[in-house]
Amino acid sequence: MLLIRSLVVLITSAAVGQATEFSFFEPLQPPRPFQVMVHRGQSHQAPENTRPALQRCIEDGLEWAEVDVRLTQDGQHILSHDASLTDAAGKVWKINEHTLAELRQVDVGARFAARFAGEQLLSLAECFSLCKDRLNLYLDCKDVHPGHLAEEILESGLRRQVVVYASLEPARQLSRGTEGKVATMTKWRPGCGGPEWAVTNGLAAVEIDAPDLPPAIVQAFRHAGIKVQAKVLDRWDQPAMWDRAIDAGADWLQTDLPEELLAHALWRRVPKRPVGLALHRGANRYAPENTLPAFAKAVRLGADYVEFDVRTTRDGAYFLLHDSRLNRTTDGTGPIDQITADSARKLSAGVKFGQAFAQTPLPTMDEFLGEFAGKIGFYFDAKVIPPAALAAALEHYKVVDRTVVYQSPQYLAQLKAINPQIRGLAPLGKPEAFAELAAKFKPYGVDADWDILSQDLIARNHAAGVKVFSDSMGDHERVEDYLQAIDWGIDVISTDHPLRVLRAIELWANRQAMKSADAPLRK
């Protein structure tokens, strides 16, 4: 408490020197209240510290990636957390004992998943080229040449997109050697001192472990022009610590779970949602599609629905699978309707996504419904399952009122004859087809092609008591398209890119807040 009181005093004391706040690039406009810093890139979805791990950060609209920097034998900076690499044959490559050209021979992707086979180590220069004007970088200096590193940063034109993390003395030397042109950061712990400690040492930012993050400390640093990065990794990477860091006013949160962190923070801020969120085949960007981990991730993201597909084996068992063939997403081959349930249960539905999911099985419909009934809404794509079996399953798991079923109008009519409470979702490919569809089949909702969406079409559906769902796969997977559809009043957006929909909701909420603030002025 004594330290906290002294920091509060320092905030108001004219004797404390105020740093000139380092001006960092803002990848998102308008910026979020806090920024996400992803540990080693999106390392849960792609090999850490690689091009695809960084590319996925960019695609998800994240602000920062933490990457690790090491020096090769010939003095080149490359991205690697570990001091050595092991190739597919079991050979160990020590980074400081090999040239960059030699290290290029190491496949750093295949051990993660076959789809990343051939991925090479990324040089710092290549990293800079990929991220320029797109993604900020936290460079964790494992083994670097400070002078060479400074030159690379300044010559790249990414000075405002980089913060260099090192122990205190190297960080101080780098800051002084570049006259403050390169932003530096080091760890702050209780006992280090207050903001004057950071200012004296030329730091642009400090990293603070989440448990050491009282608001007064954060505000003291920010008042002095020093950015605060909250480290919320490992056991701290969970909602209570995210809330603690956000409420304390941290500028950056370093995490392995950016998608969950951003979803959690948004739903705190926007409890009344302007649109429903359905995740296509589960959260398939973060876990293998149509698997229990993908649906569990969707629950943690706060989705309203999970879309899933059901197909039938040769002996009449129901499994979750989109394609008619097993080849794309499992380690099996051929049509699923040509194998037995016992064979289907032996397949891996996750190994092609990543080795971490190698033991993830192809789930049965009963396993899925039993696990997630009551936790999330179901968007049931009835690929190959008889209407009577589908109705029986929904009734057995008591999820009729939390499910929409997508299929042809004729199939939905059969379902309604079995159980009138089942909510049918009919495809709508042409605006002019709506009147007959609504009059003849009276669906709960339509799954409208995104290309035909308009404010008028949505209004006509709503006037007839019909909900409007749509997916934006392909050309329309953009924040701008999502925001337009929200303005038109769409009911549910189905997506492969949940963070883009969340960003659209965030921008919508910002506009609503501005309108509310302006309302008294207009009066």
Structure description:
With 523 residues, the protein is of the alpha/beta class. The chain has 2 domains: 27-264, Phosphatidylinositol (PI) phosphodiesterase (TIM Barrel), CATH 3.20.20.190; 270-325 and 364-513, Phosphatidylinositol (PI) phosphodiesterase (TIM Barrel), CATH 3.20.20. It is built from 19 helices and 20 strands. The chain has helices at 2-12, 51-59, 100-103, 124-131, 146-156, 168-177, 195-200, 215-223, 239-248, 258-269, 292-300, 341-345, 365-372, 387-396, 409-418, 434-441, 455-463, 479-488, 498-522; strands spanning 35-39, 64-71, 77-79, 84-86, 92-94, 136-141, 162-165, 183-187, 205-209, 227-231, 252-255, 276-280, 305-312, 318-320, 377-381, 403-406, 423-428, 445-448, 467-471, 492-495. The chain has an 8-stranded parallel barrel with strand order 1-2-6-7-8-9-10-11, surrounded by 4 helices. The chain has an 8-stranded parallel beta barrel with strand order 12-13-15-16-17-18-19-20.
Highlighted features:
single chain, TIM Barrel, eight-stranded parallel barrel, eight-stranded parallel β-barrel, 19 helices
In short:
The protein is an alpha/beta fold. Helices cover 35% and strands 18% of the residues.
What would you call the shape? Answer: globular
Distance between the termini: 47 Å
Mean pLDDT: 94
Task: Give the CATH superfamily of the largest domain.
Answer: Phosphatidylinositol (PI) phosphodiesterase
How many runs of DSSP E, i.e. beta strands?
20
Q: Beta fraction of the residues? A: 15-25%
Poorly predicted ranges: 1-17
| Integer count of domains | 2
- CATH fold topology of the largest domain: TIM Barrel
Query: Helix proportion of residues, in percent?
Result: 25-40%
- Quickly give the CATH architecture of the largest domain: Alpha-Beta Barrel
How big is the Rg?
26 Å
Kindly name the structural category. Answer: alpha/beta
CATH domain class name of the largest domain: Alpha Beta
Largest beta-sheet details? 8 strands, parallel, barrel
DSSP summary: helix tally: 19
How do the strands of the widest beta sheet line up side by side?
Answer: 1-2-6-7-8-9-10-11
